[in-house]
Each structure stands twice: as structure tokens, then as C-alpha cells.
Amino acid sequence: MSAVEEKLAQLGLTLPEVVPPLAAYQPAVQSGVYVYTAGQLPMVEGKLPVTGKVGAEVTPEEAKDLARTCALNALAAVKSVAGDLDRIARVVKVVGFVASASDFTGQPGVVNGASELLGEVLGDKGVHARSAVGVAVLPLDAPVEVEIQVELAQ
Fold it and tell me: Residues in domain Endoribonuclease L-PSP/chorismate mutase-like (predicted)?
């Protein structure tokens, strides 16, 4: 077990199986020393635990927890191509998409769920640049979707 997976276990988390693609793409690809994940939905055992818009059917607190799940799924996708999460030199960028009610403006707080998980698990290597974007709808009516880009140690 990698040191990163040991840290996940200390947090009471397990790295899930990679979420299979919903369309014509790969969950993650490596280019040089970088791994880019596809947008990861908050799937748990092949299902979305909650659907709807944040600020309407989904509370910001629920959405923040879902963003954590997205980040965990993104780490699984990274491992699927990198082989070992201990190869992560740093998380470079996180992009979070939040399906938002028309008056919801708390996207950064929602995406903090993903950012905070990466920091808890990776420490300084988890510090990253980020975008948090409100959108009208996401695949399968998911409330949140997160993609990450990481640099691997050479």
C-alpha cells in the first residue's frame, strides 16, 4: 500500500475502483510527467448518491461532501495510469463544476470539498491552482464534477 493510500486509510477512506467512462473518453491520460483526469462525478459504487442543483435540491454542505467524493474518484483515475499515488509530485490544477440554482453563488465553497481532501491526503503536494464554475446542468443530473491535473515525480 502506498503512503498516500495509508493516509487515506487513516482518514477512514478507501480508494475506490475507477469510475467507468460514461461516453467516448478515458478516465485519465498521462502526457509526459502530467496526468489529466476526465471530469469525475461523485459516483459511489456505480451510482450517484444525490442528484439536482446546488442551492435547490442539494444543500451546499451536501455538495461539498460530493466534491470530496469526486476528488477521491480522481485520485483513483490518476492511480490507474500512474500505477502508484506516491509518484504524485504535486496537484497542479483542480477544476470544479457545480450544477447551480440560478441564485446560487457559493461554488468556491462547494469545490473546497475537493481541495481540502487533496490537502489532507497529499499535504503540500496537494496545494493547487483552481477554478470553481457554476453550470446549468451536469451529466446524469450530478450536482458536482471535478477534474484534476497532477505532475508526477520523474
Answer: 6-148
| In the chain, beta strands by DSSP E | 28-31, 34-37, 88-99, 129-135, 144-152
Q: Per-residue pLDDT tens for 111-139?
A: 999 999 999 999 999 999 999 999 999 99
Q: How many structural domains compose the chain?
A: 1
Single pTM value for the model: 0.97
Q: Is 74 exposed, middle or buried (0-12, 13-18, 19+ CB in 10 A)?
A: buried
Summarize pLDDT for 54-72 with one digit per residue, the tens.
Answer: 999 999 999 999 999 999 9
Return the SS3 of 110: helix
Cα–Cα dist 123/15, whole Å: 17
Which CATH number goes with the domain that contains 89? 3.30.1330.40
